[in-house]
């Protein structure tokens, strides 16, 4: 029998925050403070982890062939105005602006014509060093630079690859709404759930992303950052 949570837009007991709508000025102030907080945390993170990142780079280079930094196109914040023409209904929406994401390489170098797929638990493509990096989520450290240059925040919905975004936008209702804010290195969905094993798992994460979009605030970002630190220290990364 299908679990009722699979059909609920707010799985795991998550419900929309019952708060009065903010005024335009209050929303702008909140967004500016959130952005300033995320940039400050990213800057401090770069300063503190610079020696660690140097060691990680050496280990990657010494144990496998290929670049130290893995780059990939992801879909981020939807900067389009309401007047801009939308994509034809025959073609799925991209939902946001593409940007280049930076990560420490944790997998063997893929062939140029390889299709875009989700990483899986115990993925055979993962290197020995990469497995450790992913376990502690250290492969995400270069994304601190994505935050500093304005592509991401520390906290926000995780950005996906363009082909995957198009597929999900056609299968999951309100998927595009998660692109209303800058994507993040971590987020409410990441500290609540583990690896995606099915489209239903993705639906649950989208519901959590939308809940974050509704209730985001500097305090909420700090809470998620704290929870992320606990996940990293407990080696519950994927």
Describe the structure.
The protein is mainly alpha-helical. It has one domain. It has seven helices and four strands. The protein has helices at residues 24-63, 128-135, 143-149, 162-171, 188-192, 199-215, 218-233; strands at 69-75, 98-104, 153-155, 184-186. The protein is globular and about 55 Å long.
Which key terms come to mind for this protein?
238 residues, mainly alpha, two-stranded antiparallel ribbon, two-stranded parallel ribbon, 4 strands, 43% helix, globular
Secondary structure layout:
Blueprint: H1 24-63, E1 69-75, E2 98-104, H2 128-135, H3 143-149, E3 153-155, H4 162-171, E4 184-186, H5 188-192, H6 199-215, H7 218-233
Parallel strand pairs: 3-4
Antiparallel strand pairs: 1-2
Helix pairs in contact: 1-2, 1-3
Count up the domains. 1
Largest sheet: 2 strands, antiparallel
In N-to-C order, the SSE pattern is HEEHHEHEHHH
**Beta-strand fraction estimate:** 5-15%
Strand order in the largest sheet: 1-2
> Into which percent range does the helicity of residues fall?
40-55%
> Which structural class do the helices and strands define?
mainly alpha
SS elements, strand count: 4
Note the overall shape. Answer: globular
Distance between the termini: 28 Å
The number of helical segments is: 7
Mean pLDDT: 83
Q: Low-confidence stretches at least 5 residues in length (pLDDT < 50)?
A: 1-18, 81-91
Radius of gyration: 18 Å
């Amino acid at each position: 029998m299908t679990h009722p949570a699979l059909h609920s837009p707010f799985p795991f007991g998550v419900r929309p925050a019952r708060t009065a709508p903010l005024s335009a000025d209050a929303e702008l102030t909140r967004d500016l403070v959130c952005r300033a907080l995320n940039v400050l945390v990213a800057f401090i993170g770069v300063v503190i982890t610079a020696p660690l990142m140097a060691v990680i780079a050496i280990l990657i280079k010494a144990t496998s062939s290929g670049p130290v930094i893995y780059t990939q196109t992801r879909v981020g914040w939807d900067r389009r105005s309401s007047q801009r023409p939308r994509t034809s209904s025959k073609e799925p929406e991209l939902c946001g602006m593409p940007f280049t994401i930076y990560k420490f390489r944790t997998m063997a170098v893929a062939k140029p014509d390889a299709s875009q797929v989700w990483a899986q638990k115990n993925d055979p493509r993962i290197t020995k060093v990469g497995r450790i990096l992913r376990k502690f989520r250290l492969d995400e450290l270069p994304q601190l630079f994505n935050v500093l240059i304005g592509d991401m925040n520390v906290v926000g919905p995780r950005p996906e690859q363009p082909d995957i975004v198009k597929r999900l936008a056609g299968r999951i209702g309100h998927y595009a709404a998660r692109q209303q804010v800058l994507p993040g290195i971590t987020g409410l969905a990441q500290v609540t759930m583990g690896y995606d094993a099915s489209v239903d798992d993705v639906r649950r994460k989208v519901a959590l992303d939308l809940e974050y979009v509704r209730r985001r605030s500097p305090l909420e970002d700090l809470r998620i950052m704290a929870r992320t630190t606990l996940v990293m220290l407990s080696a519950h990364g994927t």
